[in-house]
Amino acid sequence: MTVINSLRPRTARSRTGRVLTYALVFVLALAIAVPVVWVLLASLKKKSEFFGSPWTLPEGLRFQNYVDAFTDAHMGQYFLTSVFVTLLGLVLVLAVSVPAAYVIARYEFPGRGIVEIALLGGLFVNVNYIVVPIFLMLVGWDKALVDVFPGGFFIDNPTVLSLVYAATSIPFTIYLLTAYFRSIPVEYEEAASLDGASRWRIMTRIMLPMARPAVTTVILFNFLAYWNDFIISLTLLPGDGKTVQVGLLNLFTAQKAAADYGRLYAGMVIVIVPVLIVYAFIQKRLIEGMASGGVKG
User: Fold this and answer.
1) Residue 267 binned pLDDT confidence (cut-offs 50, 70, 90)
2) Considering the domain boundaries, does residue 186 fall inside one?
3) 117-128 residue pLDDT tens
4) Which residue blocks in 187-243 are alpha helix, DSSP H?
5) Single Gene Ontology BP term (predicted)?
């Protein structure tokens, strides 16, 4: 009887803790969902509807705002530029970081400690603080190659922007992947090596699938960094080939002056929706990878 009575307070505290946790999660989810839903509804309103209450539902579904944003405001062009830059940046950073992280985690070679310290130091460098030196360096290269490329090559080039994105995110990516590779037991590699697998096959067929949680994490973080970047893309793409974030600023300036807020909010939705879709997909894959990982005895 005494044991039962002593368990009741613990059960009550546990139930109270769960209720508070669920309430906090609900409030946070609501704080995120309400602005997103509000922007979505505002993107479907006519110009005259914005002069009333901002919380009223749209009278109709005005999808013409999206058409105008894609065509007249060139958000479609900016969107494709952002997709190209982001995908190419992800491919480049993974192509470099995965083999490099595997070598650092599993091989002993002269200077490995120095390389790790250098990569660790790179984590503390904010790329926004060095964007001006990067810009001046690229301008100098364009001047040196003016006879070969009279119109310039390194500035206003989306491919070069992808290279800058990948290069500046390599320290974080290698650091995270190296730590995860080291957490995988070496017995998997030894068993595969006894079966005649090469180092490349071991890395691509065994280590990389097992490191899927870490890979999906770096994909998510790097995707958000590339897609949401403003300062670097504004500096390195001064011409018409802007990314969607810079294009959104131009759209904001133009539509605010024209008081056409429906087209402005449509541009915001164009920017937000891909992030939500990728995040939902990556989150699901991340949870699946973590659930299927581990060493089975």
Assistant:
1) confident
2) yes
3) 998 888 888 888
4) 187-194, 199-202, 208-210, 212-227, 231-236
5) transmembrane transport
